[in-house]
Specification:
By secondary structure, the chain is mostly helical. The chain has a 5-stranded parallel sheet, with helices on both faces. Strands 6-7 form a two-stranded antiparallel ribbon. Helix 37 packs antiparallel against helix 38, helix 39 (764-775) packs antiparallel against helix 40 and helix 44 crosses helix 45 (900-914). The longest helix is centred in the last third of the chain and has 18 residues, at 703-720. The two termini are 70 Å apart. The relative contact order is 0.04.
């Protein structure tokens, strides 16, 4: 450590050696070493004392003690401790009188000094005598006078007096004044290390060369102070401690650095820790005048301490060099008084017109939002933070406001702002505010523009009755609440896209769950004013009106709006509109883009979950069952089912449907365990949940339960006026259940009704309905109808529904005696099913009159080992191609918007199918073979 601290001290060391050489020739000298705290003065004295002793000199060494610890003549006694008979003789000989003064006129320290120093010289004999005293600014007055006595009498003696002092001097020093007048006085000033010295010291500390950028970061954090540099930690992991540091560019401060900063501040003199703490609390807005006002002290004292801290390297231009240094000094205060200090600092900063964020930090540290001015500052800071995706800190500030308003009429508004911010972190956090928000809605304590925002929080968590009560309140209590323009930045828009105003007040049939107090299914959309553009386009899509115009409007919204807290609602609405309009390719592109943007921003778990849920639904409608499962699980990972509230049916319905189609009914059944909460069934995704549950019942032979779910799904869709032809094909699925139950007439009626709702064209809904139409038609007509269904579904890109249509076509061809064609079609159905990870056994629709004709499809679901051949699926080919080009699994997952786990699963299947052991063997020839 001594060698480290002596960096850039060779000149001073050599000057002391030169003075020692002169001392041998009876040329005494006084060397006054000064410098900021912790710049190596003590180490220089230690090293020089070793040099002097090694050269034959007699060395007397001592240091001053802090105030209150130093007895009279204490330093002199410690200097003479090793000289026989002299230490005891260093006691003061002049007693004090009753008035506390010495009886003699001579200074007390001078009494006996001649004898003491003469005894020391006698003990030294022919050797030079080196008297070295460190921290002379702390020594007692008697010792100071004894040293001054010696200094005045060594010009022709073999004595070198070396005195070290920490600068700047806080009080007058008679010893310094007397030494300064001596012609044989020499002054040595130590400064912090230069940038080059800092780099050399870092290299000695770590034992290896360090990059210039790393050395620069060390200098910026320490200012070249050896004490701070001595706290330099090794940035390398333990396993690479002996390796190079070419890629290390920044030094990360650790606990040793923070402790060294506190020590350095304390060494800068009494009062400096409080002043440094004031600087830290006031932050970037600190000025000497503000610090003086904060601490109620004189400004000159502040300027003196700031100068000492800057000279020592702790500050630069009045600011702490490193955030860890600022935090260490701020946290070093007594815990009891710190909140009061922060509160006072906040008031001073606010009066000085400091930025809202700076004032809010002090208010948060004080835990104080008392007064309208404080709440206004916190609210403005929260608004800025939400615009920067700092929802966590914004929620902290808004929580302070809400806590300060307990029992106040304005608390409901503050809670609503807090809930809006917390929703972006996790919707589950907002549940604790629902009782108070519901009460505020019932009692009308929320002003204009706020009622609908509160109602949407309630609706998201499955409390539509309270929502409906609020929005049905007589006019005049909450005018214009439905207009989104009144929402500040950061309002959780995903919920809003899922809760537009109702389109119909028609009552559904009496059957079903999720009824309101009048026995009607709870409408998922609260009443309100004119919907905003995003909501309007979703409403049109859900009603199936103006298809081309609606799709173009949705595309326009997605093209023109940038993702943020205010645009999340219209963007989600536009995505869902494209899905309902069967524009899945376009929706997939936009969803992937928005999901990447959300993932790149902090504290947007809610956003990511919403886009993942939409992506899962898109994958499901394209027949990519494995991707649908992975994306739905991602949605549940980002927001727990509890956090999804009443809209948990969104990811759950997709996940249940995908698992069922993949031949994993037990896993789907686990998700369906227990009765469905009314909150599920009363939300926009309640029908989706019933639809998914119905498909699971049908796949496991529960056709009667399936029929009940499909009809309940339809009752809600028609009651709410959102029964778009391409939304949920409940009539077609209900027809399939009726066929299995032997009710051919009802099945035919449902198919005809669904077909009448489908417009002419190559729609997915039309392809599915044609498949069911074939099942209720004459056996001889089925091949032609199913041929058309296959063509439509091939064009639409739904591989799973295409596999179902192919399976029915194979059965129809077998019934028509076309055995060879039937076998070829069956092979294609199985291949298509396995490509989308579906269970081929679940493909065929029960149809009267086919007698089970047609070739068998398979004995079981596809296995992960790839025994279905070496043909890669489209998803597997995309992953394999990126892997072959050197992309990591994480890079592939980001580019394709799938989880890393899904990438790993795809690669495992690719390796098995192609017979390779790793990505290095994914050659172009093998990948071409996988396409055959």
């Amino acid at each position: 450590m001594i060698k480290l601290y002596l960096e850039e001290r060779d000149d001073e060391r050599n000057r002391l050696r030169f003075l020692l050489d002169g001392c041998r020739n009876s040329r005494g000298s006084v060397a006054w070493v000064s410098g900021p705290p912790a710049t190596g003065k003590s180490t220089l004295l230690d090293v020089f004392a070793e040099d002097a002793a090694a050269s034959g000199a007699m060395v007397l060494r001592a240091s001053g003690l802090p105030a209150g610890e130093e007895p009279a003549m204490g330093v002199v006694r410690r200097l003479l401790y090793g000289v026989p008979g002299l230490a005891r003789g260093a006691e003061p000989v002049a007693p004090r009188g009753q008035d506390g003064h010495r009886r003699e006129d001579r200074p007390a320290g001078a009494l006996g000094a001649r004898e003491l120093w003469a005894g020391a010289l006698t003990a030294a004999g022919e050797r030079p005598l080196v008297v070295a005293v460190d921290d002379v600014q702390l020594i007692d007055e008697e010792s100071a006078q004894a040293l001054a006595f010696l200094a005045r009498r060594i010009r022709s003696a073999r004595v070198l007096l070396v005195l070290a002092e920490t600068a700047p001097r806080r009080a007058p020093s008679s010893l310094h004044d007397q030494c300064l007048r001596l012609p044989y006085h020499r002054r040595l000033r130590l400064l912090p290390l230069s940038r080059a010295g800092t780099r050399r010291l870092a290299e000695r500390r770590l034992g290896v060369p360090v990059p210039a950028a790393f050395a620069a970061s060390c200098y910026e954090a320490t200012g070249g102070n050896p004490l701070l540099l001595g706290a330099l930690g090794d940035p390398r992991a333990p396993g690479e401690a002996a390796g190079p540091m070419e890629r290390r560019e920044v030094w990360e401060a650790g606990s040793a650095y923070r402790e060294a900063v506190v020590s350095l501040v304390r060494r800068c003199g009494p009062g400096t820790p409080d002043i440094a703490r004031g600087l830290a609390v006031l932050g970037p807005s600190a000025t000497p005048a503000l610090v003086a006002e904060l601490l109620e002290i004189d400004g000159a004292e502040v300027r003196q301490s700031v100068g000492a801290l800057e000279a020592a390297g702790a500050l630069v231009s009045g600011r702490f060099r490193h955030p860890a240094a600022l935090a260490a000094v701020r946290d070093d205060a007594p815990a009891a008084g710190l909140p009061r200090l922060h509160a006072r600092a906040a008031r001073l900063l606010h009066r000085a017109e400091a930025p809202a964020r700076v004032v809010a930090e002090r208010l948060a540290d004080a835990g104080d939002a008392d007064g309208p001015w404080a709440r206004s500052v916190l609210r403005e800071a929260a608004r800025q933070l939400l615009a920067e995706d700092r929802a966590d800190l914004a929620a902290e500030y808004l929580g302070l406001i809400a806590d300060a308003l307990r029992g106040d009429a304005l608390r409901a508004e503050a809670l609503l702002e807090l809930a809006d911010a917390e929703w972006r972190i996790s919707p589950a956090l907002t549940r604790r505010h629902l009782p108070e928000l519901a009460d505020a809605l019932r009692t009308g304590r929320l002003g204009a523009g706020l009622g609908t925002r509160a109602a949407r929080h309630l609706s998201w968590h499955g409390r539509p009755v309270e929502t409906a009560e609020r929005v049905r309140r007589p006019a005049g209590t909450d005018t214009g609440e439905a207009h989104a323009a009144a929402r500040p930045a950061g309002v959780p828009g995903g919920r809003l896209a899922l809760a537009p105003p109702p389109l119909s007040r028609r009552r559904p049939p009496p059957a079903g769950n999720g009824r309101d107090r009048a026995g009607r299914p709870g409408a998922p959309f609260p009443d309100g004013g004119p919907p905003e553009p995003g909501t309007e386009v979703l409403l049109k899509a859900l009603t199936g009106t103006a298809c081309e115009e609606t799709a173009a409007h949705a595309e326009h919204i997605l093209e023109t709006l940038a993702l943020d807290g205010r645009t999340l609602e219209p963007l989600c609405s536009a995505l869902l509109a494209l899905v309902c309009q069967e524009r899945c390719d376009s929706a997939a592109r936009w969803s992937a883009r928005l999901l990447r943007q959300a993932a790149a921003r902090p504290h947007t778990s809610g956003w990511q979950a919403l886009f993942a849920a939409v992506s899962a639904e898109i994958s499901l409608r394209r027949g990519a069952l494995a991707d649908a499962e992975a994306q739905a699980r991602t949605a549940v990972d980002r927001i727990t089912l509890e956090g999804w509230g009443g809209h948990a049916g969104a990811p759950l319905s997709t996940l249940i449907t995908a698992l069922t189609a993949m031949g994993r009914p037990a896993e789907a059944a686990e998700l369906l365990r227990g009765p469905a909460p009314d909150a599920f069934l009363s939300s926009l995704f309640g029908p989706s949940y019933l639809y998914a549950r119905g498909r699971h019942h049908a796949a496991t032979g529960g056709f009667r339960a399936a029929l009940g779910d499909f009809l309940a799904c339809g009752a809600r869709l028609t009651a709410w006026g959102v029964d778009a032809p391409g939304h949920l094909l409940w009539r077609a699925e209900a027809a399939g259940a009726c066929l299995a139950l032997g009710d051919l007439a009802r099945a035919r009626a449902l198919v005809d009704e669904q077909l009448a709702r489908n417009r002419l064209g190559m729609s997915r809904a039309r392809g599915v309905t044609l498949r069911l139409l074939a099942s209720v038609s004459d056996v001889r007509l089925r091949p032609a109808i199913l041929d058309e269904a296959v063509g439509v579904l091939t064009h639409c890109g739904d591989r799973y529904e295409l596999a179902r249509a192919l399976a029915d076509l194979a059965a129809a061809q077998g019934a028509a005696g076309l055995r060879e064609r039937a076998r070829a079609t069956a092979r294609l159905a199985v291949s298509t099913a396995r490509e989308c990870r579906a269970d081929p056994r679940l493909l065929r629709t029960v149809a009267p009159g086919d007698g089970g004709a047609g070739p068998a499809l398979t004995a079981g679901p596809p296995k992960s080992g790839g025994e279905d051949g070496t043909v890669l699926s489209e998803a597997e080919r995309r992953v394999a191609s990126l892997a072959a080009n050197g992309h990591t699994n994480r890079e592939i997952s980001t580019r394709l918007v799938i989880t890393v786990s899904t990438v790993e699963q795809h690669l495992t299947r690719v390796y098995l199918k192609l017979g390779v052991t790793g990505r290095s063997q994914l050659t172009p020839s093998r990948l071409r073979a996988g396409r055959e």
